[in-house]
Amino acid sequence: MNQTPNMQARQTSRLSRLVNIGVPYFWLGLFFLLPFVIVLQISLSEPALAQPPYRLLWEWVEEGLLQIQINLQNFMLIWEDDIYLYAFLNSLWVALVCTLICLLLGYPMAYAIATARERHRIPLLMLIILPFWTSFLIRVYAWIGILNTNGLLNHFLLWLGVIDTPLQILHTQTAVYIGVVYSYLPFMILPLYANLTRLDPTLLEAAADLGCRPLRAFMRVTLPLSMPGIVAGSMLVFIPVVGEFVIPDLLGSPGSLMVGKLMWTEFFSNKDWPLASALAIVLLGLLVIPFVLMQRLQQNLDEGRT
Amino acid sequence: MAVPADRRLLEPWQDPKAAPYVRIERVTKQFGDVYAVDDVSLNIFKGEFFSLLGSSGCGKSTLLRLLAGLEYPTTGRIFIDGVDVTQVPPYSRPVNMMFQSYALFPHMSVEQNIEFGLKQERLPRRERAERIAEMLDLLKIAPLRKRRPDQISGGQRQRVALARSLAKHPKLLLLDEPLGALDKRLRENTQFELVNLQERLGITFVTVTHDQEEAMTMSTRIAVMEAGQIMQVDTPTAIYEFPTCRFVAEFIGSVNLFEGKVMASEGNEILVEAGAGFTIRMRSYQPHPLGTPVTVAIRPEKMRLCAQYDPEAVNQIEGVVEDIAYLGDVSIYRIRIDEGRLVEMTLTNIQPRTEQALTWEQKVAIEWSPTSGVVLTE
């Protein structure tokens, strides 16, 4: 008799654990794994003049006999044609440069907000978040108006007398950098801010007490302790920027190819869904593999320390 | 704790020619409108174990932070070893501090934490290794050297924090509630260890505590603080036996206070009228004019039971036992002497509990000697 309520409690706790773990797995399965499998499947198929424009991998040839045809042509093409390699390298390079600029700009800003007086912090954070209330597309279009040859920036610089002829900024790589850094800076600042506000200020007092000047205390205490924030912010900027399409398309030069734009072209202009999917799979691999390796390395370091 | 005879003689604050190691000169620290430290002057001598005692918010921690250089005084000056350090930043002071939260660097091992201060001094590697070994040995934490702060217990963290602050061989060590985060058992052991360590190393310790027992056990002298001011600076014995004001008398231990007026003065004794027909005779160390309002303070353990009430006798009073608190070694009795007044008396339980000296509602007479209390005017 005494056991019954106990067992019931155990059963409900098992049920609630199942739900707790189950819901995120279900979510991931439905919105990540399933689309991934679909894209992977398309990438291994052949293009066709049909709706949707590819041939299914499997086919019932006879009664009860299933034929599966895997087409690796798309991946071969990506490997053989230089244009894709160039686009990948260019995308990674742009993402890397933008991540570094965001870090260099974002760290001092996050630090300043985290160390500001308590009542100033929320308004300052609001200023960081505020641009999100306007459509992303509109903000990128606004940069066209600013960076144009007869745009705001050139007018201003001419008026100042710094230059005599307007600068060609729009449709160059520089414009892409400006647009990307502007758009993604909040994604760097927010995780850094979250990390830096948690930093115990007495640690810096302890460092000062032990003979550390402020700059060294920053290098030896603040910086290493904010590493998780730096990694999180960099991931949040780097990963989406590699596949970024809108900003290079609107602000960049037509000559500089990025993977996102290439994918768009394959998907919508060339109607080559399999090739576009293959590009997406390769891109995913390029992003996930270093990430997993890095986590392994971190784990090994942690274990080595204990 | 037993104090060796030669140490009892070693009381530099008694010597007018001795130069203080730390001199705090009329220091005030304001935060907005609040005076955290209010016009404090204090001398601390070499080799002392000095305690700042007070309830939370009395300014004791701020005073310690002023010594560390983590705060700068609004007015006043601070000298350490004769040098004016009032505006010297913390990283240039010959002082180390042990923080209340320990403030160990979470991303460094025990060893790296201890080494941190030594690296700032740019000591060569060999010397650093020697110092680390010395500290690990001194605080018996060698097995923990490779662990990180989140992998050791609270008591062990306390030792690491102490090791880190001692590693630079400071002349002055500041300790902010050093035992605050430890449980009672560990605290008592650590108190003795801390005192032994201090005597062995000959470092001047200044510690902040809100625990009067801790301050009494460890200190050479105690400064009792309240509302940013120092109420009394003295040895633990003097603070307990001869408080100079009501605040200190009530803050340290328990005390019976009788308010009254000076009626007569005979030699070095005075008579205080403390209610109708209740006269107290007290030894007085300073003259009191007739009619002065005074407070007589007598500790509960200085009260005695008398066999029979004698209305004519001095310092004797009759009452009824109202409350008994049995603490094992002693019992506390609260005796009602009239409508508004209760007197507290402690008696040692010499006999087992079954033969309790007093019971509830029992009529008793208590007395005390003229030398067992103090007369307070503040």
Automatic annotation (TrEMBL), chain A:
GO cellular component: plasma membrane
Keywords: Cell membrane, Membrane, Transmembrane, Transmembrane helix, Transport
Membrane topology of this protein: Multi-pass membrane protein
UniProt name for this protein: Putrescine transport system permease protein PotH
PANTHER family, A to Z: INNER MEMBRANE ABC TRANSPORTER PERMEASE PROTEIN YDCU-RELATED-RELATED, PUTRESCINE TRANSPORT SYSTEM PERMEASE PROTEIN POTH
Compartmental location: Cell membrane
Family: Belongs to the binding-protein-dependent transport system permease family. CysTW subfamily.
One Pfam short name: BPD_transp_1
Regions that span the bilayer: 21-44, 83-110, 122-144, 175-196, 217-242, 273-293
GO biological process: transmembrane transport
From TrEMBL, chain B:
Family under the similarity heading: Belongs to the ABC transporter superfamily. Spermidine/putrescine importer (TC 3.A.1.11.1) family.
EC number of the protein: 7.6.2.11
Keyword Ligase: no
Upper classification of the organism: Bacteria, Pseudomonadati, Pseudomonadota, Gammaproteobacteria, Chromatiales
Function: Part of the ABC transporter complex PotABCD involved in spermidine/putrescine import. Responsible for energy coupling to the transport system.
Subunit: The complex is composed of two ATP-binding proteins (PotA), two transmembrane proteins (PotB and PotC) and a solute-binding protein (PotD).
Keyword annotations: ATP-binding, Cell inner membrane, Cell membrane, Membrane, Nucleotide-binding, Translocase, Transport
Designated gene of the protein: potA
Pfam families associated with the record: ABC_tran (PF00005), TOBE_2 (PF08402)
Organism annotation: Imhoffiella purpurea
Protein name (Swiss-Prot/TrEMBL): Spermidine/putrescine import ATP-binding protein PotA
